[in-house]
Design goal:
This protein is mainly alpha-helical. The protein has 7 helices and 2 strands. Strands 1-2 form a two-stranded antiparallel sheet.
Length: about 170
């Protein structure tokens, strides 16, 4: 997640509950120190949030007035309330809002995924074997037989080490 003030990696999340609503702000360590969040004696969240809240309220009021799906009547306020869209046309109308929501809910807008540790080793080994085999084929085509011999020995040694590791 990025700092809401300077776009660096956020390391501090401050949440303020006001009635039944919560307000969150994500900051990097430098901005948190600068705003006094790490020193709770001097901290004033209103300095940090007021401009964002006023801007968000103005944007929301303007957006709610202007953005209503012509297909289903779904509004931006409905999206924020229930967290899903009404129909396929809503994706085009509320696309920028959905994108910003995803960016704040998750660690970015792209899925990087995870691979189980054992599977990662298998994938890396397979990739290395394919790479060595490709280099070997190219060396043979180029009639570089000494290089091909070295690559063949490397490939055989690597495959042998994999076989002994699996026992």
């Amino acid at each position: 997640m990025k700092c809401q003030l300077c776009e660096q990696q956020a390391s501090v999340t401050y949440t303020k509950l006001v009635g039944d609503k919560s307000q969150k702000i994500h900051l990097c360590a430098e901005c948190a120190d600068e705003k006094g969040i790490t020193n709770l004696d001097n901290f004033d969240l209103s300095d940090v949030l007021m401009s964002d809240i006023e801007k968000a309220d103005a944007d929301e009021n303007e957006a709610v007035d202007q953005n209503e799906c012509t297909e289903c009547g779904f509004t931006l306020q409905d999206l924020r309330k229930i967290g899903r869209l009404g129909c396929s046309s809503c994706y085009q109308l509320f696309g920028s809002e959905v994108k910003s929501m995803i960016g704040t809910m998750h660690h970015g807008e792209t899925h990087e995924g995870k691979v189980p540790k054992g599977m990662l080793l298998v994938i890396e080994a397979k990739s290395k074997i394919e790479n060595l085999q490709s280099q070997l084929d190219k060396a043979i085509k180029a009639e570089e037989y000494e290089k091909a011999g070295e690559l063949k020995n490397q490939l055989a040694a690597f495959q042998e080490s994999l076989a002994s590791d699996s026992k």
